[in-house]
Amino acid sequence: APYCQNFDSGAPGDWNNNGWAINSGGTPSTNTGPSDDITGGGNYMYYETSTGYLPVVTLTTCVDISSLNSPSLTFNYHMYGATIGTLDVLVNGTNVWSLSGNQGNQWNFTQIDLSSYTGSITIEFVGTYGGSYTGDIAIDEVCVDEYLVIDGCTDPNALNYDPTATNDDGSCIYCTDSNVDIVVDGG
């Protein structure tokens, strides 16, 4: 590390792949999967859930994080469809992140703190079938690097909550009498 994989050169030969597919553009199924990679015009890895799917797919790599002071794993995921299953991330066999269900028709960013690990680590992306063909899960721009400090509102109860923020910058806005419009029947 630092190490980044955007899959634009194809499926990485140094990763152990059991069931994930490389793709550019949209997935073959309608109403599921991304229409392109995160940057546009490149590749991504995805779990195809229409035909020939496995109930669970895995994509695994090994990264040495010894040179990093505050290591983290960042990646973008796309989980759009009515029958999205689960995407899990395991580090050295321990589940460190999990998300299930439809997350909308967009790429989403996440960051996982790896500071409790040292040396060479194994990172595994695990996709689990959700029940039908509208369950395609995709990942792109996988990086292991220094922890990113992202300023924003970190309180999920705030109106402007930013799920990608790692540092609360004091910008949170809450519902109060002064910022609520009162609508009365009849005008």
Write up what this structure looks like.
It contains no helices and 13 strands. Strands 1, 3, 4, 6, 9 and 11 form a six-stranded antiparallel sheet that branches. It has a five-stranded antiparallel sheet with strand order 2-5-10-7-8, with no helix packed on it. It is 0% helix and 40% strand. It starts with a strand and ends in a 19-residue tail after the last strand. The model has no long low-confidence stretch (mean pLDDT 90). The relative contact order is 0.23. It has strands spanning 3-5, 16-18, 21-24, 43-47, 56-64, 71-79, 86-91, 94-100, 108-113, 120-128, 137-146, 151-152, 167-168. The chain has 187 residues and is mainly beta. A hairpin with a 2-residue loop joins strand 7 and strand 8 (94-100). The protein is globular, with a radius of gyration of 19 Å.
Q: Topology of this structure?
A:
Blueprint: E1 3-5, E2 16-18, E3 21-24, E4 43-47, E5 56-64, E6 71-79, E7 86-91, E8 94-100, E9 108-113, E10 120-128, E11 137-146, E12 151-152, E13 167-168
Parallel strand pairs: 12-13
Antiparallel strand pairs: 1-11, 2-5, 3-4, 4-11, 5-10, 6-9, 6-11, 7-8, 7-10
Q: How would you characterize the largest beta sheet?
A: 6 strands, antiparallel
Global shape: globular
Distance between the termini: 61 Å
Helix/strand-derived category reads mainly beta
Overall residue-averaged pLDDT value: 90
Q: What share of residues are in beta strands? A: 35-45%
Number of helices: 0
How many strands appear in the DSSP assignment?
Answer: 13
**Radius of gyration over C-alpha positions, nearest whole angstrom:** 19 Å
Low-pLDDT segments, ≥5 res: none
